[in-house]
Every structure is written in structure tokens, then in C-alpha cells.
TrEMBL record:
Organism: Geodermatophilus nigrescens
Keywords, ordered alphabetically: DNA-binding, Transcription, Transcription regulation
Pfam families: AraC_binding_2, HTH_18
Gene3D superfamilies tied to this protein: Homeodomain-like
Entry GO MF terms: DNA-binding transcription factor activity; sequence-specific DNA binding
The keyword Hydrolase belongs to this UniProt entry's keyword annotation: no
Occurrences of domain HTH araC/xylS-type (ranges): 218-320
UniProt name for this protein: AraC-type DNA-binding protein
Transmembrane segments: none
Family matches, as SUPFAM superfamilies: Homeodomain-like
Length: 320
């Protein structure tokens, strides 16, 4: 599935309100007021799977009441200055500042000639990653603050945001492959959990190993083997095996000595190996295309994994 791109230049505030309300899945329409000078809203929106990257500019000074959002939306100004107020929290933004839009809470903003970079993804993805990696149930995942927990995490997020936008703009980035898009989406979700204050940082839960039968692992392995070419998640595998994500992680560590994602990576490497053996380079088959189809977005990293496993470079297998 190719990256979906939308480019718009809107001169009517009511049209811009409708477009942004739909894009950011607001609970009700945004409300613009106090528009100064001629109004132009320029939007470039790119979506790969469940991950979105937008560039949004308003040329007019204005005020806005932003309706409650249901997605995770993180913003960093490229130029201009904005003032946001959400409850008792206030943020004055400028280039280099990162902030997370509140979820489920209306907030107000005021700006003049604002240009911002945005990354967005459904909150459900973040909740799933929190359960899979941290053992925190989705119902207990809540974000608290709008700003990063530290300067280093702010810089980490800015670097990731630039990478996401670059990948969305690159026609050969590999995001057209569902497995690649899903992996980048999970990276963004995991980084958001490490960047912005949330309940996973203060959870007192300690995972318990419990007793998981080997049959659970066998069911999980069979599911992965049958669906490795699809963008399945650890939650999908756990559901098929009849346990929770954390129990599955512990079962794999106990019985196989690796994680479910590690096993998925191994199976996908085997799939790429079989496809390289059957491929015909004279018909246009390439290592990069085959690697991307199996979720390996970076050819150099794929080549390193491949050589460590099979003793030769993937290009050698393709030629022979």
C-alpha cells in the first residue's frame, strides 16, 4: 500500500475547520476566531498504515479552540510562535519545542503565521505497545504532561520526527510495504511512551513468570509461521495462543530463549532467504525489494543479519 499524500491550500476558515476536524479525529469541530489578515491554511498530510506525518501552516494570525482529540498528536514548530492553554497548563512554542496535544480535553491556541511539523497515530497503537513491552493494560495507560520528560528525550523525539517525515517523502523508503510501515509505527509509539509523561513510567506492576504450558508456545509459533508475511503484532500472536502479551513474552524467553519479535524476525529472514533463492535478477528482482517485502527497511542491516545467518551476502544468493 503506497503512502497516501494530500496537499491542500485552503482560503476559507470553515473549510479548514472541517478538514482538520476529520484529519485529527476530533470529537467536534474546531472553532477559529479573531482571524487577522487574509486566511490561508496550507496542509501536506502523508499517511502510511496507521502512522501520519503532516506539515501545517496558517498564514493569518488567529485564535482557535481545538476540540478534544482521540489520537496521539505531537507537534513541533518550524517557524512562528504559538501559545497553547489546556486546563492549567500553558505552553509557548517556538522552533525546537516539542509538545503533545491533550487527549480527550479541549484546549485553545493563539498564533500568527505558524508553520508546524506533526506526527500522529491512534492512541490504541500506543496502548497496545505499552501492554506488549511494559505489561501495562490499555485501560491504565494515560498521558499526563504535554512536554517531554527531559531535554535529551526532546532531542530524541525531534530526530525521530525528522526521520518519519523524510521516510514519508521518500518514494523508495519502503513504507509502501505493510511490515515496514508497521515497524516504524511501533517505534514511534514506543518512543512516545519514553518521551512524554505517562502512567507507564510510574506503574508499580512487576511481571510474574507464572506457569505457561509449552503448548502455548507451539500455538504461537504456528501462528507466526503462517502469518509472518503480514504485519502481525505480539498482541495478535498472544490472542491466537490464548494468553496475554506479557505471558507470551515470558513463555518465549523460558522455552525458546528469545522474544516473540525475535522469533518473528528469524522467520521473516527465512522467508526472504527462500524468496531470494527462487528469484530471477534478470526479471527485475532485487535484494531491496525482497527485503522490504519481509519487513527489512534498511538493506545494509538486512545484509548483516543475512550474512550472519547464512554465511553469504543476500546478493550472492540472488545471483546464484
Amino acid at each position: 500500500m503506497p503512502v497516501e499524500v494530500v496537499d491542500l491550500s485552503i482560503r476559507e476558515p470553515d473549510v479548514a475547520q472541517a478538514v482538520l476536524t476529520e484529519l485529527y479525529r476530533s470529537e467536534r469541530p474546531h472553532a477559529f476566531s479573531g482571524v487577522r489578515r487574509s486566511f490561508i491554511c496550507e496542509l501536506r498530510s502523508a499517511t502510511a498504515g496507521r502512522l501520519g506525518a503532516d506539515r501545517l501552516r496558517f498564514t493569518a494570525g488567529m485564535r482557535c479552540v481545538i476540540a478534544p482529540l482521540s489520537d496521539l498528536v505531537v507537534v513541533s514548530p518550524v517557524s512562528g510562535e504559538c501559545r497553547y492553554v489546556a486546563g492549567r497548563d500553558e505552553i509557548i512554542t517556538r522552533p525546537g519545542v516539542v509538545f503533545r496535544h491533550p487527549i480527550g480535553l479541549a484546549f485553545s491556541g493563539e498564533w500568527d503565521d505558524m508553520d508546524v511539523s506533526i506526527v500522529r497515530l491512534p492512541l490504541a497503537v500506543v496502548e497496545r505497545v505499552a501492554e506488549e513491552r511494559l505489561g501495562v493494560p490499555p485501560a491504565d495507560v494515560r498521558f499526563d504532561g504535554m512536554s517531554p520528560v527531559s531535554g535529551s528525550m526532546r532531542r530524541t523525539w525531534l530526530g525521530l520526527m525528522r526521520f518519519v517525515h523524510q521516510q514519508m517523502a521518500d518514494p523508495v523508503s519502503g513504507l509502501a510495504e505493510p511490515l515496514v510501515a508497521a515497524q516504524l509505527t511501533e517505534l514511534v509509539a514506543a518512543t512516545a511512551l519514553a518521551t512524554f509523561p505517562n502512567t507507564t513510567m510510574t506503574s508499580a506492576r512487576l511481571p510474574r513468570a507464572g506457569s505457561v504450558a509449552p503448548a502455548v508456545v507451539r500455538r504461537a509459533v504456528a501462528f507466526i509461521d503462517a502469518h509472518a508475511s503480514l504485519p502481525i503484532t505480539v498482541t495478535d500472536v498472544a490472542r491466537a495462543a490464548g494468553v496475554g502479551p506479557r505471558a507470551l513474552q515470558l513463555a518465549f524467553a523460558r522455552h525458546l530463549g528469545l522474544s516473540p519479535t525475535g522469533y518473528m524476525r528469524r522467520v521473516r529472514l527465512e522467508g526472504a532467504h527462500r524468496e531470494l533463492q527462487a528469484a530471477d535478477p534478470t526479471a527485475g528482482d532485487t535484494v531491496a525489494v525482497i527485503a522490504g517485502r519481509w519487513g527489512f527497511a534498511k538493506p545494509d542491516r538486512f545484509a548483516a543479519h543475512y550474512r550472519a545467518t547464512y554465511g553469504v551476502l543476500p546478493s550472492h544468493t540472488l545471483r546464484t
